Amino acid sequence: MTYTTMRSYIAIVAPPPRSVPLHFSAACLVGALLTDITYWRTAEMMWTNFSAWLLTFGLLLGALAAIAVLIDIFSGRLLLRGGLGWLYIIGNIAAFVVSLFNAFIHSRDAWTSVVPTGLTLSVVAAVLIVINACIGWVILRQRAGGLEE
Question: Tell me, what's the pLDDT at 18?
């Protein structure tokens, strides 16, 4: 009697190395939201300095990630098929631009550097980052499932 053995495979897809600066950038920008909220509640000037530094590091790391993505797109290592990949790219650019304006707002003095405009821009950037993270997770799951390359 012959038995057939069925094997199941789990495709494990690791995020590419270019996503590392993007993740650290997102952490810095969400951290800027947390320090903005803390400043709004305590009025300690130290928190505005923390926010400004977190925004600066987040923007620098985001620029590094953008350069890495552009290199991968032009070298052919990253293929953006369908609207979801482009939506992810556009969402990341939007979060970067909002954070850039937020950094300019944070360069002002005292209370107006954070409340209300800086805090609002930090919230918008954090929401964009969460939406982009969800889209990125969907793209990664599609690649793992073999639906996209």
Answer: 81
pLDDT digits (tens, 9 = 90+) for 65-85: 999 988 888 887 777 777 888
Total-model pTM:
0.85
Determine if the peptide bond prior to 17 is cis (ω within 30°).
Answer: no
- pLDDT for 72: 84
The four Cα atoms 136, 142, 145, 149 give a dihedral, to 10 degrees, of -100
Token representation of residue 12: 């494990």
Amino acid at 51: S
Tokens matching residue 21: 């600066």
**Burial of residue 9, with CB atoms counted within 10 A of its CB: 0-12 exposed, 13-18 middle, 19 or more buried:** exposed
Tokens 């993270």 belong to residue: 133
pLDDT at 146 over 90: no
3-class DSSP state for residue 90? helix
Output helix, strand, coil percentages for the chain, rounded to the nearest 5: 75, 0, 25
Alpha-carbon distance values, 51 to 9, 16, 26, 37, 57 (Å): 45, 29, 13, 10, 10
Provide the 10 A C-beta neighbour count for residue 7.
4
CA–CA gap between residue 115 and residue 34 (Å, rounded): 13
Predicted local distance difference test score (pLDDT) of residue 149: 46
